Amino acid sequence: MAYVRKVNTKYKDCQSGISYDLPGLLTEKGIIISHVRYLAWYNAKSASWRERSIFSLKLLVEYINASQKVEKGYELLKAFRDSLVIGTIDHNTCDDPKGLFWRPRKIHDINNILHHLNHYTDFLALQDEYNHLRVNPFRKATSYEERLNWCAYYNKQKNVFLNHLSSKDDAKRNAQRQRWVSKISNLKIDNDKVVRFPDKYIEELIYEGFNRKGIPDYKCQAMTILMNFGGVRKSEIFHIYTSDITLHPTRPDEALVRIYHPVHGQSPDPRYKNRIEYLSAETSYQPRNQYPRSKRLHAGWKGALLTDNRNFFEVIFNPAYKAKEFLNTWISYLKYQRVEPPRYDNHPFAFTNSEGAPETIKNFQRIHKNAVEKIGLECKKEFGTTEHGHRHAYGYRCRLFGLEPIEIQKTMHHKSEHSCLVYIKPTNEELREAIRKAGE
Question: Domains plus CATH for the chain?
Fold first, then answer.
C-alpha cells in the first residue's frame, strides 16, 4: 500500500565527510534519497526552508499516490496545482474520490509550494543519472508574458546592489521563456491594520505581567525590552552570548548590545575564527539556527543587515533612555536570577532556564502569553500581542519620532529600505484624521 511519512535522517557527504541531520520522506519503496541529497547540497539554507521543501514534496507524493497514472509530468503537476487552488472535496456529495480531503489553499502558499517543487526537480535534471524530461519544463513565453517577465526583472533589479553587473543576455533568455505550469498571479493587498503591541500596555506587561508573587522576572523583562524598545526579532535574542552585552564605551550607564551572526560572527575567544568553530571546540552545542525546527534549541535567523565586518549589528534603543533601563534589568538578572550552566555542559548563551541550559523559544512564548493574559489582554497575532508585535511597535515608534525610511532600515537591520514600510505605514483611520486636520 502506497504511503508517505516524514522521518529524520542522518546523511553523510562522501566528498567532504560532513554529516547532516536532515528531514526525509519515507515511502513504501524506501526513503526518497534524491531529496535528502538535495537538502544536503543546499545545507546553508535555513531549517524553515528545509521544512517547507519537504512539506511541498510530501503533498505532491500524496497526490501522486491518490491519482491515476499520468504520462507527462507537467500534466500531473498542473492537476496538482489546480487541486491546491480549489481543493479536492466534492461538496455536492461531501466526498473526495481521491481520499485527500484537501481544502483550497491561499495563492501565496500555492506559489511557494510550486517554487520548492520547481527548485527540487530542476536540481534533479542536472544530475548525471537523470535521463528524463524536466518535470516542469520551459516553453516560449507569449508577448504578454515576456513583457510581464521584463517588468518583474526591472522591479527586482532596482533593489539589487551592483545591478549593473547583471547579465542582460541571461535576463533576455529568462524573459522569453515560461514554465508550462506557472504560478498564479498574486492579489495585491495593502493591509490596513498594523498589528503592533499597544504602547499603553507595554510598561504594565514588563513590570506587572512578568512579576510572580512580587518577584520580578528579570530575564523576560530584559528580553521584552530588547524586542519592544530595541526592535530585536524574537529569534535573534536566543543567539546572544553573555559577552555580547557590555557597557557602552562612552556612556557607561547604558548597555551596548551586539547581535552576531550565529555561524559567521566573531568568536568571543580569539583562538577561533568564528562562532561555529568556537561552539564546536569549546562546547557540545552548535549554532542554534542549525538545529532542526523539531529540536527545542532551534532558533531561526532571518538574515539581518549586519553593520560591522565582525559580522554583528548593534541594538539601537528607542527611546534612548531604555538602554539604561535594559542595563539595570540585565544586571539584576545576572546578580539574582541567572542559573549558570553546569561545568559538564558549559555554554555561552545569555539567557538560561532553571537548570542552566539555554532558554528556548517555546518556553519564552509560554511565559509571554501568560504575562499578556495576566494584564487582561488576549494573546493573538491580529491584536499585536504576540512577541512579534513588539518589533512592529518599535518600527512604528521610529516613524513617530520622525526617522526617515533609510534610518529606520538601519535601526531595524533590514537589507532593503522598503522592508520597513510594513511596520510604519499609517492606518486608514490615521489617514482620515490627517485629512480632517488638513481641511480645517
Answer: 4-137 (no CATH), 139-179 (no CATH), 199-424 (1.10.443.10)
